[in-house]
Request: fold
Amino acid sequence: MTDAEATASLHGSVPFAAHLGIELVAAEPSAVTGRVAWAESLCTAGGALNGGVIMALADNVGALCAFLNLPHGSAGTTTIESKTNFLRAIRAGHATATARPLHVGRRIIVVESDVLDDEKRLVAKVMQSQAVL
Reply:
């Protein structure tokens, strides 16, 4: 089940997330979970969900996780570094990413995301740094 209100808010502020069809499942400071459905239009020539889609999913849930952990008085956040390790392909169903804060500082927030397939197998591991604005 998705969080329709949080998804609408994400789509309103990040049009690319809406374009990809990213849906938020849960959004709390301790963890943000979102998903994107496999679609032929989002795939590589071999029918696997494009790695850029997986990275965009992780970037969006990671950025929201960082935003929910911003220090008081901060204006926002932006990704300054992201590293993705791909472990398997998704050829059906959903990619579901859960982002958790590893470090919340005054200037940098580090977020780690696990991307899973519908069988709960690890598809990708993403580490990103978010600058506090």
About this structure: The chain has a mean pLDDT of 96. The radius of gyration is 14 Å.
